[in-house]
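Cross-posting from the chemistry board since nobody answered there.

I work mostly on the small-molecule side, so proteins are not my area. We synthesized zinc ion and want a rough idea of how it might sit in this target. Sequence and SMILES are below. Is it possible to get a predicted 3D structure of the two together?
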Amino acid sequence: MTAIAPAILPPSTSAAYFGHEVCRSQPAARRSLFITSYSTRLERVSSPENLSVAARLADAPSVRDTILAAAAAAHGLPGTDPRAMTHSWLFTGPPGAGRALAAQAFAAALMCPAEPGRGCGTCETCRGILGPEPRHTDLVFIRPEGLTIGVDGVRDMIRDAATRPTVAPWRVVIYDKADRLTDSAANSLLKTVEEPSSTTVLILCAPSTAPEDFSQTLRSRCRHLYIPAPTVDQIVEDLVAEGASPADARLAAVTSLRNVGRARQLVQNTDAQRRRTMAINLAEDIFHGSGAFVAASRLITNVTNEAKTINEAKNAKEDEEIAMAFGAGAKGKGAAKVQSEIKKEIKKREPARRSRQKRTQYDLLDTALVDLMGIYRDALMLKVGAAVEATHPDFSGLAGDLAARVSEEGLVAAQNAIVLCRERLLVNLDPTMALNGLVGRLRIACRAR
Ligand SMILES: [Zn+2]
């Protein structure tokens, strides 16, 4: 089998397409806001501070109607149906659809003193709850960072959920990434979810398109609300409003599979663009003998370094907060003791930090694998003549070559190999072993021998 000519695929293809000008034109404050975590259409760009909850959810009418009906019923507004409200909720939806922001909007509608049951969007309560770092005395917002969450990780939340609100009529507990709960953690939450305090609303958020993936026992005790992914046009509109070119915005929307956070990262972050190119190019590299293993190991190094950079910044910020909390800068007798307390506290965080590093690395690698899967999917669509939009329109040359050289079964097998690799990474297999296995399977699937 002849190798695919590398000439058709300059490594800079997508970086050039995405254009660095866009990055420079971004207002600095917006550029870093949600790059590595999440963000969504539910936060309108024009004047986010002034929009009511209804306006913020305008792009997702089914979500808006459910949330506002529930909040209105919770406040007993005239003409509302009390059955619209319940205490335990599960918000699911594809990654980047805005589950957490929908939960924040719900909290604002419940807690807003200016327009109870509606959420004015302008009062101090609303602005605190709807901001990038949600805050309010009676709001508990938890976004865990480890690979999985055990019983220890939910203990505080159980206590918080049992506490009465202090100023707002409701205490709202939002648990993002609840899909990371271990079975035992999920079980320890059962009672809280089943019979929460009468003044508590619990919202579990899980990135999933199939709610059956989520703990069956918890799911059956919650009311489920699906947060759909935004349309390509909605994402393009948002990214263009933030300064991206329409072409970049459209490519990012399509290639991110309508994940707003990921799309935004692609138009703004050249490292993310480079990683995407590396991942997609693996489909070509596998035709070049050992070159594919080298490319895979380069991808792992890139991901590991990026995860380190992200977490070093987080660690430094935490160190600073710890030092502040312990009263660093003290002089005299107490100074040495304070320093040793600070050191001890930082050391205590080490296991959590290692777990966070692993999770970041996993997330970045998983995104790369989803990118790689997209090129085999594009090739398969071409092969069977399906008239669907390509996942990677800027790599149509590679998709065409794969379609010409690899059988239909081979393209399916390649995608299955990627699914298997993602699963193996999730159960904590060493990334090098997982990716070497993947390269081997891709070579067999594509008969690259
Ligand atoms: Zn308000």
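Reply from a structural biologist on the board:
Welcome over. Reading the output above for you: The chain has two domains: 1-34+257-449, 48-226. The pocket of zinc ion is lined by residues 112, 114-115, 119-120, 123, 125-126 (CB under 6 Å). Happy to explain the token format if needed.
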